[in-house]
Amino acid sequence: MAWQHPADILLEAWLDTQDRHLGHYVNGKWLKPERRNSVPCQDPITGENLAICLQAQAEDVAAAVEAARTALENWSTLPGARRAQHLTRLAKMIQKHQRLLWTLESLVTGRAVREVRDRDVPLAQQLLQYHAVQAHTQEEALAGWEPMGVIGLIVPPTFSFLEMMWRICPALAVGCTVVVLVPPASPAPLLLAQLAGELGSFPGILNMISGPTSLGPVLASQPGVQKVAFCGAVEEGRTLRRTLAGQGLELSLALGAESLLLLTEAADVDSAVEGVVDATWSDRSQGGLRLLIQESVWDETMTRLQARMGRLRVGRGLDGAVDMGARGAAARDLAQRYVHEAQSQGAQVFQAGDVPSDSPFYPPTLISDLPPASPCAQTEVPWPLVVASPFRTAKEALAVANGTPRGGSASVWSERLGQALELGYRLRMGIVWINAHGLRDPAVPTGGCKESGSSWHGGPDGLYEYLRPSGTPARQPSLSENLNYDTFGLAVPSTLPAGPETGPSSAPPYGLFVGGRFQAPGARSSRPIQDSHGNLHGYVAEGGAKDIRGAVEAAHQAAPGWVGQSPGARAALLGALAAALERRESALAARLERHGVELKVAKAEVELSVRRLRAWGARAQAQGHTLQVAELRGPVLRLREPLGVLAIVCPDEWPLLAFVSLLAPALAHGNTVVLVPSGTCPIPALEVCQDVATLLPAGLVNVVTGDRDHLTRCLALHQDVQALWYFGSVQGSQFVEWASAGNLKPVWVNRGLPRAWDQDAEGAGPELGLRAAQTKALWLPMGD
Amino acid sequence: MAAHNLGTELDLSWISKVQVNHPAVLRRAQQVQARRTVKKEWQAAWLLKAVTFIDFTTLSGDDTSSNVQRLCYKAKYPIREDLLKALNMHDKDITTAAVCVYPARVCDAVRALKAAGCNIPVASVATGFPAGQTHLKTRLEEIRLAVEDGATEIDVVINRSLVLTGQWEGSDFIKTSTGKETVNATFPVAIVMLRAIRDFFWKTGNKIGFKPAGGIRSAKDALAWLSLIKEELGDEWLKPELFRIGASTLLSDIERQIYHHVTGRYAAYHDLPMS
């Protein structure tokens, strides 16, 4: 037998305790049901069988969810300090058995042990400690929020156990319990669950089920699961989004793994080259890298990069002196396919490094001269590839970097402070590092935007992923029905003249409010609006697909100007709108009265609406903050940025208050909006638009009336709408969730449930502020 | 010693274009120490290699011919013969790269090395070491005398007041520090210097040597320095003509590590001959 490293011996000993037969870890015990399929867990280099892993079936998933549900009752009601204590104990447990953990992870995934040992394992402990502190202060700092419940977590094969820790820690800290669907043949998560289980108390809070990703929908459909968190490939995420539409649970997606590095002529090129190594060739990240290099330093950078690549070592992950390990056949084939395709499209390929000739390894690869319009240039760059392309000016670099559907992470390399900050702020990415790449810390939120999915882990944002405002109704028993997505809201029922306009109030404003003025609808037809007595109150325009297109365009045009306004200026304009509403009080109250609202109540509704505008204007001024990170000199900025064009379908009830309550936070956070007002009573919203027309920049607010299902369909399928809030029917909610898979826009739906808009908690709570902006973490390391 | 640096026209634009990002260099310095952890026979091989880069140094005020003689003998026989035999390296003529002494001790060193029957070069610090704050005339005279006495390598302390005012000088080798400062050879500084050496080579074809000095005491440190050179400059620089480690106590730690590798036991201080 070949010489064995002592670490291997430790590992073998652990596998032997399980008779080389790994099952699932549920409720603090190993679960090894009979008659299940199994897959071998292999050393990716030698192909040697290490153990046999059972594959779960639906009933095993059900058992795990049941255990998590039982554990939830106790765990979620514990004082935060008790949970903190438990997380700290788990961190210590990991510390005691770290050698086994890092050996197992490195051996099975093939990643360099140095990275697992020196970074992943310490970071896992820091994550537990950071979240223990958060649990400790939860009652105080997160008052008004409660844990969601049982969380289902789906991790695909290429992700490390650390990615799982980023999500487990905040969920457990705030009082949720977790069921993880780990990919077949990945024992490190199972070991982690065993370590947690061996703490003795609270056995069911962390359960691991081993099985293919296709079990994801089974996990999601278990009653009691309130949220599913998925990380993996973009297309898998899209499919899952569609499958889970209408099931009444929250879904958070973290998709893709490509990163971006932007190297300007003012950069320390040698350090930037190290940044490229950190990003792709050091087993730190899962994906490839898009490298943008300023033309003037292109040659110099390529020379240095190629020289550096020659010194990289690839080999068995457990060898302490390798930069890069092997990631198994699937990852290698993916890389190979991409390289072949790129070559056939005319790209230059450079490969170097000390790479063993046997098959599982793939060398560090640099691709250049890929034509920008070629199919390869559009697809995600896989590990361990770097695709380099030149740019001329910083402005062009931004256009190229932002011109992809991906919005994960990026780094900017420039020694010019102004340029670095400009690029850092204007990149549409979840994380931006200045003159560094791949730094992580538990206190800094990590996530993305656009098709990278808008879920967050770490920092305050990571906690909110597993919280909901106290009193939110739990998930309803699955209401998902066979909604026909092809026809929902497709046709607009035609409407005819409906008798004489009668009643006390003057003629209501008519038209679609788009681009700052009232316009006739494209369809040139109208729909009658009846008052509470069934009399005709007036006609509103019948908006359609083309009107939505125009409204979204107008909103996009207004966006740069609005984003550029300071929060103070935005607050001033919201204040002016509030004052205008106050002046219009009697007219608005009269409109509401015609729809059956008592005059006193109607006046209160107007008054409350005025208050909402002022409150959000004030709140918007306290945005974002600076985080201090251990071991980093310099701050990390947690920025709260606008989503972009936000579409809002307002509820039928509270026609004025709900409209304003949704509009105000959206505007205050810098978004431009397209709104569909109440279907039964859209006229108060149009009244408000008369003031909007004179006070706010054109295109900032657009209001489109018409058939709600039809307009919802148009907005939900629109690829250039960045987020959608929907308050309407169960079917509409389901459709919105399904359709959002297109550009993976974040959506907020009410699933047919009413909301108390007149209560501050639901009508003006922090939830609205959270949903109205997206986070970006901007790392600013400093040094002379 | 490699071919001399024939010098080039001074082009200050090279220097003004250099960008160094301090935090990034610090991160690199941290990484480079952890990415090439060699063990077992590979470690022993690297340690023996490290011995051949050592400028075996004594720079004390109380140096006399007797301790210089001892130093020279140790330079010739840096690792106990039986340990080298066990590694089958006894006939590879492993010595330190040079011995390094004050100018007044060059004569002693040359004599001692001759007596030991070897041609290890003698290096001398000169020019008002370690401050360099003496007159140019006496500094030049110091070099001349040291060479006359038989020194073949001179570690010159440049006049740092000229550097700080942007008046540069050329050399065949650059050294991190005198070893007599409060902060001596550190990795971040070395990274910047090595990158400058590489850039100069790419621009002119001249290979400049590199010598870290001061504070390198453990075998582990020495290995980190070797891996740094290998990573930043490549194998071409891993030879005594282009890389030296200025050290006085490092050798005994390396010998102890080799002892442990060969015997499996940790050595007592008296197990190994002193220098």
UniProtKB/TrEMBL annotation, chain A:
Family: Belongs to the aldehyde dehydrogenase family.
Record's subunit section: Interacts with SPG21.
Organism ancestry: Eukaryota, Metazoa, Chordata, Craniata, Vertebrata
Domain Aldehyde dehydrogenase intervals: 30-468, 530-750
Native species: Equus przewalskii (Przewalski's horse)
Alphabetical list of PANTHER family matching this protein: ALDEHYDE DEHYDROGENASE-RELATED
Cleavable signal peptide: none
Top-level taxon of origin: Eukaryota
Gene: ALDH16A1
Protein name (database record): Aldehyde dehydrogenase family 16 member A1
From TrEMBL, chain B:
EC number: 4.1.2.4
Biological pathway: Carbohydrate degradation; 2-deoxy-D-ribose 1-phosphate degradation; D-glyceraldehyde 3-phosphate and acetaldehyde from 2-deoxy-alpha-D-ribose 1-phosphate: step 2/2
Annotated catalysed reactions: 2-deoxy-D-ribose 5-phosphate = D-glyceraldehyde 3-phosphate + acetaldehyde
InterPro entries the UniProt entry points to: Aldolase_TIM (IPR013785), DeoC (IPR011343), DeoC/FbaB/LacD_aldolase (IPR002915)
Keyword field: Lyase, Schiff base
Any Pfam family the entry gives: DeoC
Enzyme type, top EC level: lyase
Source species, domain of life: Eukaryota
Family: Belongs to the DeoC/FbaB aldolase family. DeoC type 2 subfamily.
Protein name, UniProt field: deoxyribose-phosphate aldolase
Organism whose genome encodes this protein: Equus przewalskii (Przewalski's horse)
Taxonomic placement: Eukaryota, Metazoa, Chordata, Craniata, Vertebrata
Gene: DERA
